[in-house]
């Protein structure tokens, strides 16, 4: 129903004939689509995801009842019934708040675990952002273009970003179209490609596109130093002919030598007269590649990421007294910690039980030592003049004797 309404409104907003200039045609098309979306779909409202946002109405009613009971009690402070009613409403608010908070965290943990099991990466990270809560980001200072001055004010930083994007996007490269066209190979004219696509073909092409996908950095692999040099020179040639620039500062070389190479030498790749930087490890698509072809760096970064994730939840979850221990443990099971769950769960259960038994046995042993010390005190270790003159009790210290004499004084 909403799709039909949108299409009807869009047909009414479209002009009967579009203008001839492409820029004016595009402005009219954009205005028509934007106006139709505003009238039919409306603007998107941002909804904060937290335990109280999902239960605002129920909590508001309980808080209003508690405030009413508090006002009644303040009007008559000597009334025992009104005081008891206020304390009862206050306890209900606290109990319901804890229950709703635990329920929200339990449901969120199940949701995130389900997203991880379905390999829904986008939904997983979107849900974890809601769990971590809002984050504050300050405006970091920037260096000037020549790198001599540090820009700290908002006006200077915005001007520097404007200058950066002007140099990056609004350049005027000198392109020789004949030379570029001469590089491209010529093929016979394909008449079938000149046919106007039908509506069904257009729909099929649009439906074949994947949502939430975007291009990432390029990774060029080669087995030899000469092959990598030739590949990069070909890239640089094509970029230059099309008026594009390669960022040499971000272009790095990762060399993985042969396993039996006793003295590996890093390659010297030159691009635009500048030798590219050789790095020991490089982050690509979330994974860290190492020149040693091992996973030590990857494990280290994953441990750091796990530590950072637990650190973000320290205040909101682990140190929150309103959340039950069972809920806190459930938050930790977002991703499978080990494949053999039965084994490590049994080991954790056995280790926890052993720890508790050892702790209780040591506490009981210390208690028995203290009792035995009171029954049979070591007279040689007792200080002199620590005997009570009233009852004859032998105290362990002068401070203990003074504390004991206060009993007789009272």
UniProtKB/TrEMBL annotation:
* Signal peptide, first to last residue: none
What segments bear the compositional bias annotation Basic residues?
Answer: 368-378
Kindly list the GO molecular function terms attached to this UniProt entry.
zinc ion binding
Q: Which InterPro entries match?
A: Znf_C2H2_type (IPR013087)
Disordered as annotated region, ranges: 357-388
Domain C2H2-type: start-end pairs? 386-410
Keyword Zinc set for record: yes
Residue spans with biased composition (Basic and acidic residues)?
Answer: 357-367
UniProt protein name: C2H2-type domain-containing protein
Annotated keywords: Metal-binding, Zinc, Zinc-finger
**Keyword Lyase, does the record have it?**
no
């Amino acid at each position: 129903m909403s799709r039909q309404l949108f299409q009807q409104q869009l047909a009414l907003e479209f002009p009967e004939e579009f203008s001839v200039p492409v820029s004016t045609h595009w402005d009219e098309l954009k205005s028509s689509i934007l106006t139709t979306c505003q009238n039919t779909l409306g603007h998107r409202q941002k909804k904060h995801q937290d335990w109280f946002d999902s239960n605002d109405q129920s909590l508001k009613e309980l808080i209003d009842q508690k405030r009413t009971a508090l006002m009644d009690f303040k009007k008559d402070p000597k009334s025992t019934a009104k005081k008891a009613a206020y304390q009862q409403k206050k306890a209900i608010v606290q109990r319901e708040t804890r229950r709703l908070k635990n329920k929200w965290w339990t449901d969120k943990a199940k949701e995130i675990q389900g997203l991880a099991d379905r390999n829904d990466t986008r939904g997983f990270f979107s849900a974890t952002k809601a769990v971590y809560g809002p984050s504050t980001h300050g405006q970091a200072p920037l260096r000037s273009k020549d790198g001599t001055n540090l820009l700290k004010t908002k006006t200077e930083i915005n001007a520097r970003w404007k200058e950066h994007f002007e140099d990056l996007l609004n350049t005027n490269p000198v392109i020789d179209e004949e030379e570029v066209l001469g590089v491209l190979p010529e093929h016979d004219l394909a008449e079938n490609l000149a046919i106007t696509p039908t509506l069904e073909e257009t729909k099929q092409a649009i439906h074949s596109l994947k949502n939430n996908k975007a291009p990432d950095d390029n990774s060029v692999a080669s087995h030899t130093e000469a092959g990598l040099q030739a590949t990069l020179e070909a890239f640089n040639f094509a970029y230059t002919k099309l008026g594009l620039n390669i960022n040499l500062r971000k272009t790095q070389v990762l060399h993985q030598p042969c396993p039996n190479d006793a003295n590996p030498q890093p390659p010297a790749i030159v691009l635009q007269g500048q030798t590219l930087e050789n790095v020991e490890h490089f982050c690509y698509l979330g994974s860290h590649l190492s020149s040693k072809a091992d996973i030590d760096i990857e494990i280290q970064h994953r441990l750091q990421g796990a530590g950072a994730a637990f650190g973000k939840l320290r205040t909101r979850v682990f140190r929150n007294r309103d959340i039950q221990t069972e809920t806190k443990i459930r938050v930790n099971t977002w991703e499978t910690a080990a494949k053999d769950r039965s084994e490590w769960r049994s080991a954790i259960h056995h280790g926890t039980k052993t720890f508790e038994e050892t702790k209780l046995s040591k506490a009981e042993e210390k208690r028995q030592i203290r009792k035995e010390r009171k029954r049979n005190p070591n007279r040689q270790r007792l200080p002199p003049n620590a005997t009570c003159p009233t009852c004859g009790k032998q105290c362990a210290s002068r401070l203990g004797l003074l504390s004991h004499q206060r009993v007789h004084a009272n």
